[in-house]
Amino acid sequence: MMPRYTLSQLTSDGLPHTMAYLVAAAQEHATITYGQIAEKLEHDLKIEGRIFSTQIGHPVGALMERILESFPDAPLLNLLAVNQSSGIASGGADQFLAARYNKRLSQIQRSESLRQDLINRALAEVYAFEEWDAIAETLFGTSLPDTARTAPETGTEIDRSTSPGQPRGGDAESPEHKALKERIIANPALVDAKPSWLKPEPEVSLKSGDVVDVCIIGKAEIRLVEVKSRRSNEHDLERGIYQCVKYRAVYEAMREANGIETNVVVVLAIEQPLPSRLKPLARKLGVTVKIVQ
Where does the record place the region Disordered (predicted)? Predict the structure, then answer.
């Protein structure tokens, strides 16, 4: 018979597994819900019965505290664990945001816009970080399991990158993705760009090593367009929303570093209606969704 679990088990035996799930999400520039983590822990720890998603904050928070004890400057990996309905981390993450960005906890709790800005900033840092294996080796005496290195699933599109060791453009893009991108470049009005703006530029590299599918520069605004063709399933579309969040955060950081005053707008360009579950998420995260037909 499989054992029943205790909270102490989740915050001890569950930590290496929890880190593997979160790092797998980071590698996909995505997030993972508390419920999904609970289901994975049930399987990997051979738990009898159900782990409630409301209890997942315990291992996620304990993991982040343990990471910061040894690596104080590590990105806030716990921000990738999100509530299914809101698509963002619960209030338990606020103390980490306050400490990292020198804000009062009350400030973050009172201002939804400030909280979202800090979350966006934290997500960009997590997605750009590449030393999770070294951290896992220090904390647990072993690198993360290969199961954390998931290959793209059916219904997803591989994102292009300029990460070290990878040639520009990465894996070959699908014909559908290329066709949609080229349609937007040929007719930028499809993503609400004005005729007076500069010609769209494809595959623009960011300092994070990411490549934005299409960049369109206006007089006082820049549009960063993430393209998801009809090949993309619901998970990939959700990932696209978070990619937009990352692109905006990284570009805003680049803009601030160079003293440039430009409004940054991120657009997710898709070929089919966005699933109803993802519409509130896109609105909450400030991602414009355009259906290109």
Answer: 145-176
pTM: 0.58
Residue with token string 């014909």: 175
Which among 119, 268, 95, 91 is positioned nearest to 180, based on CA atoms?
A: 268
**Could you tell me if 187 and 130 lie in one domain?**
no
Indicate the number of domains in the chain.
2
- Residue ranges with strand state E in 51-97: 81-82
DSSP 224-278: EEEEE-TT--HHHHHHHHHHHHHHHHHHHHHHHHTT---EEEEEEEESSPPPGGG
**Same domain for 182 and 273?**
yes
| Interval 127-146: pLDDT, tens | 888 899 999 999 999 877 66
Distances (CA, A) of 149 to 23, 27, 38, 143: 9, 8, 19, 12
